[in-house]
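User: Fold this; tokens only.

Assistant: Input:
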Amino acid sequence: MSEEQNRPLVLHVWGDELVIRRRYETASIVNDILIALWFIAGSIMFFSEAWTTAGTWCFLLGSVELLIRPVIRLFRQFHIRSVRASGRGPARGESSQDF
């Protein structure tokens, strides 16, 4: 990939908000991957009685990651709201749907 393709997309209208949304989206994707890995590892470990306890811990960690998913979304909302309140994002009444 060229350096030009790696540059982030920046729109000046909602620039700060788009950057924030992309960062939280990335965090959410990483979290979803971790959820899958914990549950896959736990499932594999349950095939052996010697690994059952470790598998249970993997399931517990996967469940905690499931809790983190809405927490990421909630923090994103607070962050975007603070950007809007500071005047760096779209004004009230303007559309700012997820991109």
